């Protein structure tokens, strides 16, 4: 099983190779959706890095502000007079997953990039995807991206 890809103009990819059954072929796939999904994943990762950098940048100011709040107004608390039964937990806002339904060409490109060639087979001059051998896990409350160019 070997596949090679070459970027073409107009967000298309030429795929050549031999599948697990020994069949060889080549086809052209539309990569526009898969490119957009990868760009969105990359953008989300950049947001995480940005948030971490902002938190690090403002850490000295946040600490100084906390010291100002403590100041001289805090009464002295006798720790022997208190015992913690259960630690407090700060709430965090939940987020539903965002899932994009991939079209055929994007599925093929994803499997090629992830090295999962065993699911790809040539049928005439088209690459087809074999059904999974195990059932897919259930996902609740998923926002499926539709009509957003994906």
What's this, in brief?
This protein is α+β, with helices and mostly antiparallel strands and 150 residues long. The chain has helices at residues 32-70, 104-113, and strands at 2-8, 12-18, 24-30, 98-100, 120-123, 126-129, 143-145. The mean pLDDT is 84.
Mean pLDDT: 84
Count of domains: 1
Quaternary organisation of the protein chains: single chain
Q: Numbering strands along the chain, what is their spatial order in the largest sheet?
A: 1-2-3
Query: Low-confidence parts lasting 5 or more residues at pLDDT below 50?
Result: none
Number of helical stretches of at least 4 residues = 2
Strand content: 15-25%
Helix content: 25-40%
Order of helices and strands: EEEHEHEEE
Q: Distance between the terminal alpha carbons, to the nearest Å?
A: 29 Å
The total of beta strands comes to: 7
Coarse morphology:
elongated
Radius of gyration: 26 Å
How would you explain this protein's 3D organization?
The chain is α+β, with helices and mostly antiparallel strands. It has one domain (2-75, 98-145). Helices cover 33% and strands 23% of the residues. Strand 5 (120-123) and strand 6 (126-129) form a beta hairpin.
